[in-house]
Amino acid sequence: MTHTFTESEERRTLRREVAKLASKYGREWFTDKARSGGKTTDLWLEIGKNGYLGVNIPEEYGGGGGGIGDIAAVCEELSAQGCPLLLMVVSPAICGTIIARYGTEAQKQRWLPGICDGTGTMAFAITEPDAGTNTHNITTTARRDGDEWVLNGRKTWISGVDEADHVLVVARAEEARTGKVKPVLFVVPTDAPGFEARPIPMEIVSPELQFQVFIDDVRLPADAVVGDEDGGLVQLFAGLNPERIMAAAFSNGLARFALDRATAYARERTVFQGPIGAHQAIAHPLAQSHIEIEMARLMTQKAAALYDAGDDIGAGEAANMAKYAAAEAACAAADRAVQTHGGNGITQEYGMAGLLVATRAGRIAPVSREMILNYVAMHSLGLPKSY
Ligand SMILES: Cc1cc2nc3c(=O)[nH]c(=O)nc-3n(C[C@H](O)[C@H](O)[C@H](O)COP(=O)(O)OP(=O)(O)OC[C@H]3O[C@@H](n4cnc5c(N)ncnc54)[C@H](O)[C@@H]3O)c2cc1C
After folding, report:
1. Is the pTM of this model over 0.85?
2. When you count CB atoms within 10 A of the terminal residue's CB, does the N or C end of the chain come out lower?
3. What pLDDT is attached to residue 276?
4. Cα of 367 from ligand 1 centre, angstroms
5. 4 domain-assigned
């Protein structure tokens, strides 16, 4: 059986519409917001109002009833217009997926509509200062106190806490049946007494910030636990593939944006006889980027198609590979875009240098390239675990 390697007409229309909407805002708007301490709320709410933010969430909760492939397409097109929204990875894709798959009926009704229309953004907090990549070592604890839970701990690098009403926090709690310590997911209001967030000064040019989070005796009602409190690990894993597919889409979009700007510049800028794009030293690296980006996009679409078809295992390998390929393609594209622009490549006016850090973050978060290589070495190649 032969399949064409093109997306459905519906998906392509979604891409065109999102690109059109985001182009009204554009890169200059985005960087102005970042440099002036502004926010991307207008764009966020507009994509919410148009149904793009919750396109992956079931229709009965205000979503579009689509899949991860759809929300990844939205994320990529926003990035490709120079308006990458990191909170799309977190709010609809991680938190939205986990709640839609494992939340109680009441939780779905309570949280999902706001995630879809953008009025109830949810951040996600798993990373801790001492555990880092080794999330099995997190020490944020949840203790029962009558009908309530009491949370204590520290989180770091948590994106968008200032823009979120709630954070989905991963903590450790004793499993009711066995007494073993297991991860449990809690929806924590950002205005809860004992919850504090401090911004981490970052070199990324983005209005979306990262925070250190301090959780001191935060009291939560029993229904703050998402789904089954004994099934935290399974529920957590449900968010991993969407997270990686979205991170890949985010990088693919940034890579396309860098390449578009570089190509446009290479067509125009003339210093000897013809435009600099006529020199192979400039043209070939850009052509290489085009190939690398298309390969990364194809792998991202494959990962999303497997995930949306319900193949979580198959999607795991593909999502890791897609995230790796996309981050590498984006880093290379940003570097080549800077070089193509010469001195202009490191001016604020052209905004290319800022892409170096933004794309570089894709090699670190949400999962580092080393951990992806560990995964592929172990799971795809059957090599021994190294850590
Ligand atoms: C911009 C940004 C946004 C983020 N947003 C969020 C968020 O919203 N919520 C959240 O919970 N977290 C978030 N994070 C955290 C992110 O997931 C972590 O930074 C990431 O998992 C790496 O952890 P670490 O920074 O502590 O690095 P470390 O764990 O200290 O690792 C340092 C280096 O050592 C390498 N290393 C570690 N162990 C191994 C090993 N076994 N084999 C090979 N190499 C290894 C790593 O790959 C890395 O290169 C964000 C991070 C960034 C940069």
Report:
1. yes
2. N
3. 98
4. 6
5. no
Taking the centre of ligand 1 as the mean of its atom positions, its distance from the CA of residue 372, in whole angstroms, is 12
Going by alpha carbons, the residue nearest to atom 52 of ligand 1 is 365
Q: Are residues 216 and 255 in the same domain?
A: no
Distance 234 CA to ligand 1 centre (A): 21
List, in order, residues 6 or more apart from 55 with CB less than 8 Å away. 14, 63, 64, 66, 70, 71, 74, 92
Closest residue by CA, ligand 1 atom 45: 370
d(CA 359, CA 228): 36
Distance 358 CA to ligand 1 centre (A): 15
Indicate the Cα dihedral angle 364, 365, 371, 376, nearest 10°: -110
Pocket of ligand 1 (CB under 6 A): 90, 124-127, 132-133, 157-159, 210, 361, 364-368, 370-371, 374, 387
Nearest to 250 by CA among 187, 300, 193, 288: 300
**Claim to verify: residue 256 and residue 214 sit in the same structural domain:** no
pLDDT per position as a tens digit, 129-165: 999 999 999 999 999 999 999 999 999 999 999 999 9
Domain of residue 165 covers 124-229
Do 85 and 46 share a structural domain?
yes
Could you tell me if residue 386 is inside a domain? no
Residues linked to residue 145 through DSSP beta bridges, in sequence order: 148
Q: Which amino acid is at 16?
A: R
Q: What is the pLDDT of residue 372?
A: 98
CB neighbours (10 Å) of residue 339?
15
Domain tally for the chain? 3
How confident is the model over 236-249, as pLDDT tens digits? 888 999 999 999 99
Domain boundary, last residue among 67, 96, 121: 121
